[in-house]
Design a protein that fits this description.
7-stranded antiparallel sheet, binds FE2/S2 (inorganic) cluster, 16 strands, binds flavin-adenine dinucleotide
Length: 296
């Protein structure tokens, strides 16, 4: 949905709660899987939404760290929200040290997720750890009786995070997994765009792409989709503080079309005519809504 037709609602469904670590395991390729048990009242997240995780005091970081939801389940009636993340810096390394039972402040669910009900064949495109929200999206599509084509790419085979779990999971959901690596060490040699080129002629319906990965890959997917008249929904990342539109720290440059369609009655937490806020209008944006030449 482009900005012109997006519903102008800033309805608040998020809460800040004290969650508990229910499971915290190695997920391979230097990644961790974290399950948090949420207290009653935490809304069930949708694929593409994220949660701000704030470490318990004394914490090495002041600000919470945003994480995409990678799965949702119920255990003994309790909501369990799963995350797949890489310990890349001071905050995520401190997170990685938390054992089951530890408290974590969680603010969410935040942002707009993928519009999975859009008509067409859903093609999920993941780059590296971008697989996290898309496995959740594949689950959600299967619950509504729809299958998907799942394109999963990385530079090399060791960066195909969780691929051994992904294959049976996607097959069980009735989907098809297409692997690519830049160096050809697993799956098709090339990028996810090469895989899309091969896949598109075999699909009758219009394609609707839902993607997550590095911004360079998302830029390529956006251009690929726009050149062919397909819609593409891309999960963007930005350094975030509040996660709720207040701090203005996560601007995303709007395209000329989105600037022209910007309405004066847009809720202020949604940014301004020039910039959308990644946390409230995103993190999932339709390709035509962003100025890709100015996306960092
Ligand atoms: C909406 C959203 C969803 C995200 N989902 C996931 C996820 O599912 N799994 C996951 O592993 N990570 C995810 N990230 C990225 C994650 O939030 C950052 O990796 C994390 O904030 C880094 O914190 P740190 O304290 O460990 O690193 P820092 O010490 O703050 O930084 C270490 C390195 O990480 C880089 N970095 C910092 N913040 C980000 C960021 N937001 N995006 C990319 N690189 C960053 C820094 O530039 C630096 O190179 C998401 C980010 C956003 C905005
Ligand atoms: S993180 Fe504060 S406005 Fe987006």
């Amino acid at each position: 949905m482009t900005t012109a037709t997006a519903p102008l609602t800033a309805a608040r469904s998020w809460r800040q709660v004290t969650a508990r670590v229910a499971r915290h395991d190695d997920a391979g390729a230097g990644h961790r899987w974290l399950d948090l048990e949420m207290p009653a009242g935490f809304a069930v997240p949708e694929p593409g939404q994220f949660v701000q995780l704030l470490l318990p005091a004394p914490s090495p970081v002041l600000l919470p760290r945003p994480m995409s939801v990678a799965g949702v389940s119920r255990r003994g009636g309790r909501l369990i929200v799963g995350f797949l993340y890489a310990p890349v810096g001071v905050g995520t390394r401190a997170l990685a040290a938390l054992a089951p039972g530890h408290p974590v402040e969680a603010l969410g669910p935040l942002g707009h997720g993928y519009p999975l009900d859009e008509a067409g064949t859903a093609v999920l495109v993941a780059g590296g750890r971008g697989v996290a929200p898309l496995l959740f999206a594949a689950d959600a599509l299967a619950r509504t009786g729809r299958t998907c084509e799942f394109v999963f790419g990385a530079r090399t085979r060791s960066l195909l995070v969780g691929v051994e779990d992904a294959r049976p999971r996607i097959t069980k959901l009735g989907g098809r997994l297409h692997l690519t690596t830049d160096d050809g060490s697993r799956g098709r040699r090339g990028t996810v765009l090469d895989a899309l080129d091969a896949l598109a002629p075999r699909i009758g319906d219009p394609l609707v792409l839902h993607a997550c990965g590095p911004h360079g890959m998302l830029h390529g997917v956006a251009e690929w989709a726009m050149a062919r008249g397909f819609r593409a929904h891309l999960a963007m990342e930005s350094v975030m503080a509040c996660g709720t539109g207040v701090c203005r720290g996560c601007p995303m440059p709007r395209s000329a079309a989105a600037r022209a369609a910007h309405r004066a009655d847009t809720p202020s937490l949604f940014g301004n005519r020039e910039y959308a806020m990644c946390c409230t209008e995103g993190p999932v944006f339709e390709a035509r809504d962003l100025d890709w030449e100015r996306v960092e």
